[in-house]
Amino acid sequence: MNNKPLYVTQPSLPPLEDLQPYLEMIWNNKILTNGGPLHQEFETRLAEYLGVEHVSLFTNCTVALITALQALRVSGEVITTPYSFVATAHSLLWNGLQPVFVDIDPDTFNLDPERIEAAITPQTTAIMPVHCYGNPCDVDRIQKIADVHGLKVIYDAAHAFGVKRNGESILRHGDLSVLSFHATKVFNTFEGGAIVSPDAKTKRRIDFLKNFGFADEVTVVAPGINGKMDELHAAIGLLQLNHVDEAIRKRRDIDMSYRVRFTGLPGIECLDVPKNVEWNYSYFPIRVKPGYRLSRDELYNELKKQGVFSRRYFFPLISDMSMYRGLPSAAMANLPAATMAANEILCLPIFPDMTEADIERVSHVLMNEATTVLE
């Protein structure tokens, strides 16, 4: 039996020899950060790749989310999802904002537009949806709601690198979109993130905010933060752009292999591939339903025994965490679809270097109802 641990996603790395010229450039010109030449080149190439006009690079996605809310001067209440990574809601608390949780669509795991409209109050100033698992939100309906009520829309697009809907980047929707380049993402710079802006004026304000608010050497125009991406991480990003299309293709093949194996397996449901969407296959979530012999948590533990480290993305719900559960909107009765997803979803390993033997190893555990130790 192969005992190599398998994780939900293992970082994709560029060839080490390709990094050497960039390291020599950084060492020779002695520009390490503060918008150096690699940073500038990466912003330009990234915008071109994503099909957007304006990108601001950040040290990570969480700081980018915090800055996006600052840039739009959001106040009061922000409608968001309980079914996400904690950084989504934490960015609101760091800005002194109150999260208002609404339920998700049970099929897409994204914010339910009907629930959004019902949750709007005079204190609501913005909506922060998440493109969960890279599956695009109902951006048209969300924008209509925002327009009617005069709300800002900031998309947490941490999962949505390169995703297109009807041939257009999903990042072009809303007032801002925020990306994650964490090591576990489809596209990574080890740590990193970015904000996609619709116009140069907004990008300029964001760029001030991520650099302490400096407009020039002696002028500070806003209470900014240190959110800059350095030259080394920008170099990693430039290299990763050369390989990301191949990485997504490999992920697609792994996704298809899983689906073939799980077809007709009682109690195991694969999520539908979104229609009219160029997906990035960032995760492979399954629903573990009552028809399966084991509960979701029992399967999670059995896989772990076999060295397969799946993840319960997202469990517990953000609304169940101690700093949020006291909010009126966090009541479980208000969030039935999110609660069900948190109790049923299990994300299986998917990463570009995954072999057929790896896929078979994971699948064998599920197909044998987690009772057979692989030989």
UniProtKB/TrEMBL annotation:
Catalytic EC class: transferase
SUPFAM superfamilies linked: PLP-dependent transferases
Keyword Membrane: no
Active-site feature positions: 185 (proton acceptor)
UniProt KW keywords: Aminotransferase, Pyridoxal phosphate, Transferase
The keyword Hydrolase belongs to this UniProt entry's keyword annotation: no
Domain of life of the source: Bacteria
Full protein name: dTDP-4-amino-4,6-dideoxy-D-glucose transaminase
